[in-house]
Structure formats: structure tokens, C-alpha cells
What does this fold into?
Amino acid sequence: MRRIKIFLLAGLFLGLSSCGTIILGSKQSVGISSTPSSAKIFINDEEVGLTPNTIDIKKSDAKSFEVRIELNGYESFETVLTRKTSGWIAGNIVFGGLIGLAVDFATGGAYVLTPEQIEAELGNRTSMMINSDDSIQFFVTLQPQENWVKIGQLTPNNLQLK
It folds into this structure.
């Protein structure tokens, strides 16, 4: 009977020893949205879905996660999710000691990812491009964005039809 109590107490002790893992889990959901929507989401160069989406990331996989959002015709958006130590590991001092700390750090439960939400505003691509042969291509638009710097304007006098 005494042996059963010892095993139960040991199981309870080990169960409570990893506070971060119990409270936060080994994965974290990160919400990712973009304007316009339906952009491809890449995490560490691996395509994981389309916006808007909630992606579950295993926190123990890396110290940081590079997030890239791409949509044809728009500039890519890039940011980094960083891993920081959570305050929940303080519970290991009270309950779990070194065993709890080891479990939390091994599973990723000791960490939180920031930011928790990514909202990407995808801008239109530039209107000039330099090719590999050093030639320059210009693109014309009828509706420029307000933040663009005007460098020239086509007028009917400049047009010559052949």
C-alpha cells in the first residue's frame, strides 16, 4: 500500500512539474491575415497555407521563425516570430524544480512566440524593374498610389503611332 502511494505521489509530482507545458502547450497558434487576402504563407521557406489562417507552430523547432506572405502582383511581406521565455516556468520553482524546467524547455512549453497575430498590408509592386542584362523596364499605371513620387507623365503630345 505504501508503495502505491509513493508511485501516485511521484506521478502527481511529475505531472505538475512542467507548468509551462501544461498551461501553454508545445505549440502556439498564430493568426495570419493579409490585405488583399488569399496570399501564400511561408514559415521558414515552407508553404503552410493561405491568408487568413491560424497556423499552429511547434515552439521547440527553432529560436525564431521567418514568416513571408506572398501574392502575385504585390510586394512580399516579411517578419520574424521570436521565441521568448514565458513566466509560467516560475511554477517549476514551486512544484517541479529541475525536472519541470527540463520538460518545459525540451517541449517548447517554456516559450511564447511574439507577435501572436500578423496582419500584412501588401503593397503594389514597383513600377520599374532592372533586368539581368542591365536594361530597365518601366510599367505604366492609370491609378498611382498616394505615397508614390511622381517622376514623369505621358501626355498625348509624346505619343507617336507608327
Notes: The mean pLDDT is 77.
